[in-house]
Amino acid sequence: MKEFKDHQMIYEYGKEKGLFPVPEINQDKFIEKMNKLNKKAKKLNCPQVVFEEKERVLFRNKDNALCFILYQINHSEQIKINGWIFTAKLECLSGGNLISKNPSCKEEIPIKYRDISFSICEHCNINRKRNVLYIVKNETTQEFKSVGSSCLKDFLGHASPEHIAEYSFSIPSEEEFSDISDYISGSIPIVSLQSFIAQCISWVRKEGFITKSMMIEHNNQEYESKNYISHTGYKAFDVLTITNYQRMDYRNKNIYTEDDYKKSGEIIEIMNRYYDNQPEKDIDDFNNNLRVILKSGTVSYKQDSISAIILMRYYQVIGEKISYWIPENEKQKRASEFKFLNNEYIGTIKEKITKQVQIKYISEKSTQYGLIYIYKFISEDGYKMVWFSSNNINKNIGDKLYLSGTIKGYNEYKSEKETIITRCKIIS
Ligand SMILES: [Zn+2]
Questions:
Q1: Do 57 and 88 reside in the same domain of the chain?
Q2: What tens digit of pLDDT does each residue of 138-150 get?
Q3: What residues make up the domain containing 70?
Q4: Do 195 and 321 sit in the same domain of this protein?
Q5: Same domain, 70 and 84
Q6: Per-residue pLDDT tens for 272-297?
Q7: Is 159 within the bounds of a domain?
Q8: What's the CA-to-centroid distance between 148 and ligand 1, angstroms?
Q9: Spacing, Cα 91 to ligand 1 middle (Å)
Q10: CB 3.0-4.6 Å disulfide test: which of 61, 168, 216, 311 passes with 79?
């Protein structure tokens, strides 16, 4: 079974394979939902959604292990009434229209439907504020039309088109089943986009950032995938709403600074201007959705991942390289590390030396003389040293100490020259 150290990566893995991950603890809920959906489909005489278990993977970190089931969901059949196909649903927010395409719809939705001022039902031509509009397409003429939910019945001449419309978009979303920590507790908090982006900036500065491709390539070995941008968004939202605060034991609250907040305001302004100046045809649905969030100026937990991507897009737009941001504390740690610079031996055999060293490697080995500890060091001036000792010095990798000892011999390991020392004393 394939293993992942972060459950976020399972969603990326699923996306790549076109599979839908469901945590095992939510499997019953998922199957119940699919059965309900298919019952509804049968009643409405709509095509059923076929779902099939394809693969099981394991999420395992220090504290948890949880199986995820990857389903193939087949909803390729179009849902139509009297020759009109349900293609998309518009949610009209104050910043523009969020577009949710029907999973079976493969083509682009006309861009006029994104417009902030667009909330006309093209059936009755009444322009009033609506929360939801459906976009349908005529299968013969290919004409698109927006229809308000109250007009669906009149337009399509069918007894219960609202139900069919609702059904056609009720394919499960990842969010519904991805909850593995009782994350959402009833109320839906909303934060301002400016403080949200500020929080993302603060998080990235302190924790770093990697791209999706790096995350997959490294499979977390070098950096935790918590540094992936959508995870940054999730954390940022969490910090701001303190949803998980008590449970997550943040030692450092990681709250953004005034400078972060100012910078965030600039980013929002620059990105708004950027999108205003882009020809509409160059903006795809994904960027449209970023733009909608920018114009709306607020973020709810449903949009935390996508909203964080605004920060990444900003750096792309201004042409700054963003492939790998190393966090400040990591930079400091690296800068203070002793580095292997001198691939040479030290002194002569039997010579006594004293050096400041950093422990790079510790292991133990049982021999006919008993347990032997192997310590490898890098000295402050960049030489590699090895000490075989019967003593456990009770230090950790990364610790720095002053060491005196006698040169016993020389060794080459993977073409790196190591000076073997013996009868060592730890001075401090
Ligand atoms: Zn209407």
A1: no
A2: 999 999 999 998 8
A3: 2-74
A4: yes
A5: no
A6: 999 999 999 899 988 999 999 998 88
A7: yes
A8: 5
A9: 16
A10: 168
